[in-house]
Design goal:
Blueprint (H helix, E strand, L loop, with lengths): L7 E5 L4 H12 L3 E6 L3 H9 L6 E6 L5 H14 L5 E4 L14 H28 L6 E4 L15 H23 L5 E3 L1
Parallel strand pairs: 1-2, 1-4, 2-3, 4-5, 5-6
This protein binds NADP nicotinamide-adenine-dinucleotide phosphate.
Length: 188
């Protein structure tokens, strides 16, 4: 992790669970981290307690399914740090809505967050990395076992479909970066 010290990361969905833990650990490794979610109280509290060398944590209120909010978040990162080195697309949700009885609104919210939000953030992350000359950046997409095998419960079928999309997107992004002869790496 030494090579990432002092560099800039974005972690989406940093207010709880995996995203919270990743954001905390990145700061402890000395990274300048932007952590976003719809409710940022936990991230703000963490930013007051976690400290390590050059590391810092900056909370941004952003719903990744809202393109205007995502663009404003990247504008803030561009303005404050002028670069991005690592992007962890962790924000994700599931409502336990079966295929035969689920509601369309909840399906849309799952797709807009787990798939469209991830795509917007990845597109903008690559744009900022490339315009700031970061050719060894790294983008990490939080997938799921259920992006590789059909979930054993009906309440996870739609969520699993969104993660199968993530599996396809990871390969699609990888191929497009390769076409550009970019050194930016993408990991699921
Ligand atoms: N935990 C597991 O066992 C597991 C297994 C496989 C995959 N995953 C994947 O790993 C990721 C994190 O899972 P987790 O268990 O840590 O989840 P979690 O504890 O529920 O945390 C999800 C995070 O995403 C944020 N979020 C949700 N919707 C958002 C949106 N539209 N815009 C911005 N932030 C949003 C939440 O904050 P707000 O509600 O404040 O926005 C929260 O910070 C997800 O992508 C999940 O699918 C988890």
């Amino acid at each position: 992790m030494e090579k990432w010290r002092g560099r800039t990361a974005l972690v989406t969905g940093a207010s709880s669970g995996i995203g919270y833990a990743v954001a905390k650990r990145f700061v402890e490794y000395g990274m300048n981290v932007f952590g976003c979610s719809r409710n940022i109280q936990n991230i703000e509290e963490l930013s007051r307690t976690v400290r390590c060398g050059p590391g810092s944590l900056n909370a941004i209120k952003c719903d990744v399914s809202n393109e205007d909010e995502v663009l404003a978040m990247f504008a803030k990162i561009r303005e404050e740090r002028g670069r991005l080195d690592v992007c962890v697309n962790n924000a994700g949700l599931s409502y336990g809505e079966p295929l035969l009885s689920g509601t369309t609104d909840k399906w849309r919210e799952i797709l807009n967050t787990n798939v469209i939000g991830l795509c917007i953030c990845t597109r903008e992350a690559v744009k900022l990395m490339r315009e700031s000359g970061v050719d060894n950046g790294h983008i990490i997409q939080l997938n799921s076992l259920f992006g590789h095998t059909i979930a054993p419960r009906s309440t996870l079928h739609f969520y699993g479909a969104s993660k199968y999309a993530v599996t396809a997107l990871i390969e699609g992004f990888r191929r497009e970066l390769r076409e550009l002869k970019s050194g930016i790496r993408i990991t699921g």
